[in-house]
Amino acid sequence: YCGRTERLPQHCLSCGSADVAFLGAGTQRVEEELAEVFPSARVLRMDLDTTRAKNSYQQIIGDFEQQKTNILVGTQMVTKGLDFANVSLVGIINADSIIHYPDFRAHERAFQMFVQVSGRAGRKGKKGKVIIQTADPQQIIFDKVIRNDYLEFYDYEITQRREHGYPPFMRVIRLVVKHMDQLLAERAAILLTGELVARLGREAVLGPEAPYIFRIRNFYLQEITIKLSREHTVLKAAKADILAAINAVKDQKDYRQARFVADVDPM
Length: 267
Fold this sequence. Notes:
Elements: H1 27-37, E1 43-46, H2 56-65, E2 71-74, E3 89-92, H3 96-99, H4 106-118, E4 129-132, H5 140-146, H6 150-164, E5 171-179, H7 182-200, E6 205-209, E7 215-216, E8 219-228, H8 232-250, E9 259-264
Parallel strand pairs: 1-2, 3-4
Antiparallel strand pairs: 5-8, 5-9, 6-8, 7-8
Helix pairs in contact: 4-5, 7-8
């Protein structure tokens, strides 16, 4: 999470072909392709769009339980506490996007979700199958999921966090810089980063970088991550340094309309 960015490749890094297509894997697209591959099957989609109407969630679940639906496509809400008796196959599409989400808890959340959704196949004494779509089958998480070895996964994950300075060993503070002008948001974030580095040191400050969703309610966002010791005296001094750094930016005329939000140990 060093903030490094690269341009999208115009050629395949493996074979060199320029025939590169950037494709999404949203639930609607998956639903459409399944309908083409299995024209006689009834495919239903369960996501935010299809569950807005009153009782729509219960209707979708009821149809699937009563086997009026053959294939259910959904977001992570499908994995939450549902117990279907006749599920023989579960597919996890584009698992890499969950594993490589830019958050230090990404592996933990991915492992939890993969194990949870895998448990949906083969219930009630029936044998089931789970297929995980990935471009990196050697990823260590998959081995732990296949063996349902949560203790070994914990040992691996806690070692990684200790080595790289993440909770529970360090405290993480995420600073979000907001401005209605994208360029001013970027400049304010760069300036704030410099002020923070001068006070806290380069190793304590990561960023700035635009988050995955970089515009909310007409405000452009930039994020800065700060990693600190959990010692009370260190945190108290750092709080004063962070406030001083923010005020140093806000004192400049160009950035008086900027907003700054601090999130301690962000979830």
